[in-house]
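Risk register update: the risk of archive-format incompatibility is retired. Evidence:
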Amino acid sequence: MISIKKTHRLTKLTLLFSCALLMTLAVLDNIFAYDINYDYVQHVMSMDTTFKHPHQYWRAVHNPFFYNLCLILIIIFEGVASIVLWVGTFYLLKNMKSDKAQFQAAKQWGAVGLLLTLVLYSLIFMTIASQWFASWQSSIWNSKNASMPFIILFGLTYLLLVKEDEA
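Archived output:
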């Protein structure tokens, strides 16, 4: 029979592994399907599928240099988050049978990686893309709807991960 302590640790490890894999796939998708992701960034930043209200539309960016720059920065940010999450996954796996203090200390890398993902999806996609560039108004390029499942997954994983083990 597997103990509750082992189940909790295994759950934390599995979720962190899933987040690391998800971020890795996001990076690979952005690299290998660059044109598709470029289109997303271009449409969000140009605000061409929003209501184009003058009080918001002045924020639109119509410069391909900035579309490429933003997408490259997103890819780099995702890559760093992915690497940190993999390091965190490694340390959790390495310390699965360690005592409470060691296992708690092993969570640091994972917590930082999850923080990076939350910054990416809540600040970049939810706040800047959805609110600043008003992509919430777009039925096609809506970053609010697209980012919410990621924020929920990474946020809940973060909360579960940093929760101190009882034994």
